[in-house]
Amino acid sequence: MQYLEKIKIDSSRLFMGDAVPEIYYHDTYVKNIKPVYAVALPKTHDEVKALVHYAVEKDLVIIARGAGTGVAGSQVPIQGNELIIDVHLMDNILELDEETLTLTVEPGVLVGTIHDYVEKKGYFYPPDPASKHSTIGGNVATNAGGLRAVKYGTTRDYIRELTVVLPTAEEMTLGSLNIKSSSGYDLKDLFIGSEGTLGITTKIRLKLIPLPKASVTILQAFETVQQATQATLAILKSGADPSGVELFERSALYYAEQNLGYPLKSQVGEAYLMISLDGNDQDELSHRIALAETVTHALIMESHVLTADEAKRNWALRDNILLGLTAFTEFELLDEVVPINKFAELIEATKEMQKKHGLNVLNFGHAGDGNVHTLLMKDDLTEEQWTQRRAALLKDLYQKVADLGGLPSAEHGIGIIKKEYMNTMTEDINLDYMRQIKRVFDPDDRLNPGKVF
After folding, report:
1. Which member of 72, 231, 268, 410 lies 3.0 to 4.6 Å from 296 by CB, making a disulfide possible if both were Cys?
2. Count of alpha carbons within 13 Å of 313, Cβ hemisphere only?
3. CB 366 within 8 A of CB 145
4. How many domains does the chain have?
5. Do 37 and 128 have their domain in common?
6. Domain that holds residue 229
């Protein structure tokens, strides 16, 4: 194959040179993106293979992309003259196998679409990132977690099988429909979370479970963040078995309330927990609700068991924190993670850093699994002040995360944004073996080079 045009992709799905849409040159965190060679939007596995073959022949770097919702720069070209393979048009749900409880999908299917599809049929796909318009392929690439990880785990726990195209244009099937395996190295788990550096996923078989028959949300208000984190630990140790425990500060919620135009159910305190519980027995669920409220009673200002409509509206506020912020100021979103007993200490440390560096800091996140979403706010700082203060605070923050035994990313990935901190927080021998693994699958460093490490 000598010319890209010979691949059977019509002109509406192929953009070269100056015809590349502006969207591919815009990213919240990566500026001044260099011109790419072309953008192709395949619809089939075979088209992906043909595109990779072409890149090999032309010695082009490849960047795989989905919905473009990543916040670490993993999907952003950084060298110039890359071939972007955008798989968001590969958006078909291929098969629901009710005998093996698996759903086969293409990588461009949105995670919100998967939830709607399976729940209407009485099944449950638990991973629940706040960005419902992210693609399942992107979720696989970053091992996305989300709101229900405390009980159900992350994307990794719900992948049965992957079909991938390697940067050599070979293809592999990773994993299987079998529930158990002690048959050699688990290459599937190696690819999950690899941020598009090892292969391009073209088909995914997801594990499903029966849909819980009942669910409820409790909203609790606290005078301080520290009390909210103490309550989180009490709930986790109580046996209430929450599917999610979300924490957010009053100051972060303000922007969501402004964006959606209605208030949170509770208007007292400076910090909140939204606790979700689910199950199949209403009496047993009622007991767990009472248990969660009992163990937090001495810490809370008020507690509300929300109706279904109230829960929908209040979860929408939680999910709109970032959208609300976007309308008011520039910010940087982090996703550091620490052991759950260090969650409060990390948040307290961010408040000290706020004073030290003169930079407004907000926090929300998945308190039940130690995943903090720290927000650094530009507000009215000049570009020079923002750049300098942000860099200084990030250095202190990631050092604190390391001191607490944490990691730089829980669910968004390293990409290019957190690469510096990945390198300083990871032992040299670990980084060396990661690079060796990369060379095995991608000897020409063709697929998403310069990312992660």
Report:
1. 231
2. 13
3. yes
4. 4
5. no
6. 214-318
Question: Where is the domain boundary, 268, 295, 318?
Answer: 318
Q: Answer yes or no: are the C-beta atoms of 114 and 125 closer than 8 Å.
A: yes
Q: Compute the radius of gyration of the chain from its Cα atoms.
A: 22
Spatial contact of 245 and 295, defined as CB atoms under 8 Å apart: no
Orientation of helix 225-238 relative to helix 343-357, angle to 10°: 160
Picking from 197, 134, 190, 200, the residue whose alpha carbon sits closest to that of residue 163 is: 200
Residue with tokens 């690079």: 435
Tell me: the pLDDT tens digits for 240-287?
Answer: 999 999 999 998 898 899 989 999 999 999 999 999 999 999 999 999
CA distance linking residue 222 with residue 231, whole number of Å: 9
In a 3-state reduction of DSSP, which class is residue 395? helix
Question: Can you tell me which residue has the tokens 């079909």?
Answer: 163
Question: Which token pair is 376?
Answer: 């650094």
Asked whether residue 281 is assigned to any structural domain, the reply reads yes
Q: How many CA atoms lie within 13 A of 66 on its CB side?
A: 27
Do 126 and 53 have their domain in common?
no
Q: Is 196 within the bounds of a domain? A: yes
CATH of the domain at 43: 3.30.43.10
Q: Given the structure tokens 């140790």, which residue do they identify?
A: 237
* CATH code for the domain in which residue 302 is found: 3.30.70.2190
* pTM of the entire predicted model: 0.94
Give residue-wise pLDDT tens across range 353-388. Answer: 999 999 999 999 999 999 999 999 999 999 999 999
Separation between Cα atoms, residue 446 and residue 27, nearest integer Å: 22
